[in-house]
Amino acid sequence: MLFRSLLRWTALPLLAAFSLHAGAQTNTLRVGFQKSASLLTLQKSSGSLEKRLAPLGVAVKWVEFPAGPQLLEGLNVGAVDVGFVGEAPPIFAQAAGASFVYIGFDPAAPEAEAIVVPKDSAIRSLADLKGRKIALNKGSNVHYLLVKALEKHGLKYSDIQPVFLPPADARAAFERGAVDAWVIWDPFLAAVEKQSGARVLLDGRGVVNNYAYYLAERGYAQHNPKVIQALFDDSQAQAAYLKANTRAAAAVIAPLQGLEPEVVEKSLTRYPFGVKPLTAAVAAEQQKIADAFHALGLIPKPIRVADALPGGASVAEAAR
């Protein structure tokens, strides 16, 4: 598998860290996921991960969360073993003292998140957002998009009125005019574009990377390297299927997400998919987000992303 070769050459410290305590195995992998995470939703529906882990004697339990911040809470309290989230939730979670490690990432997907306004809105530019109410899920990937988009267009975070709402409540507020704009990710983005005619004011291109991360409880990662490898092998296989059969995959995923197949298909085209081992460069980008959030007072203390890397000093030093 591609992941295995990547792991061999670019993540030796990561494997070594996992293998230190590889003797203790578990018989269940508890996966934290969001329905908006289309690849994991496909894996869950197909049972592909269960089939891959069966030879290891490991079952799979899927635990659904409404968004990344809640998933990180579940990981921190021991409700799940691994999870998949956007780039901002781990920053907030680490600042709150959560114990986890980054174990992999998906490639950048800047088009998969955007600031949208109602189709008939008078707002035509980022500058028009000054003083406006903007809905977003606090601590999610779009939080960073909003910060950087404002900065790029000469506005400060304090120039707008953030309204913190989870996706379902945010859409309701957006459609009844209680907020002026909404910062959201796919497939919710594709849905509001098609169903409400929402207009994209700006997406992440040229502003943010919008990476997504696989995270694990530190002890689980250390003790179960074969399970982690199987998860990534299956993610790679299903990602390849999805890319080659996007319409068919969308037809499977759509009813599970409560969306039309064409909406899901559009959202799938904006994600590259394909888990990779965390690199020093990606870790450094994550550190930039942490530093930006601390400078704005969004997290109470500075954090070192390197402290949440499983590879120890070699990866941490490279990230700095």
Describe the structure.
The protein is α/β, with parallel strands linked by helices. It folds into 2 domains: 2-109 and 211-319, D-Maltodextrin-Binding Protein, domain 2; 110-203, Periplasmic binding protein-like II (D-Maltodextrin-Binding Protein, domain 2). Helix content is 46%, strand content 16%. The chain contains 15 helices and 10 strands. The chain has helices spanning 2-10, 12-19, 38-46, 48-53, 68-76, 89-95, 141-152, 167-175, 188-196, 218-223, 225-244, 246-257, 261-268, 280-295, 313-319, and strands at 28-33, 59-64, 82-86, 101-106, 113-117, 133-136, 161-164, 181-185, 199-203, 212-216. The strands form 2 sheets. The protein has a 5-stranded mixed beta sheet, sandwiched between helices. Strands 7-6-8-5-9 form a 5-stranded mixed beta sheet, sandwiched between helices. α3 (38-46) packs across α12. The longest helix is centred in the last third of the chain and has 20 residues, at 225-244.
Task: State the CATH class of the largest domain.
Answer: Alpha Beta
Number of domains as seen in the coordinates: 2
Number of helices: 15
Radius of gyration: 19 Å
The beta-strand count equals 10
- Helical content stands at 40-55%
Report the sheet-strand fraction.
15-25%
| Strand order of the biggest β-sheet | 2-1-3-10-4
What CATH architecture label of the largest domain applies? Answer: 3-Layer(aba) Sandwich
Label the structural class: alpha/beta
What value does the average pLDDT take?
88
Assign the CATH topology of the largest domain.
Answer: D-Maltodextrin-Binding Protein, domain 2
Subcellular location: Periplasm
Function: Part of a binding-protein-dependent transport system for aliphatic sulfonates. Putative binding protein.
Domain Solute-binding protein family 3/N-terminal: 28-245
Family: Belongs to the bacterial solute-binding protein SsuA/TauA family.
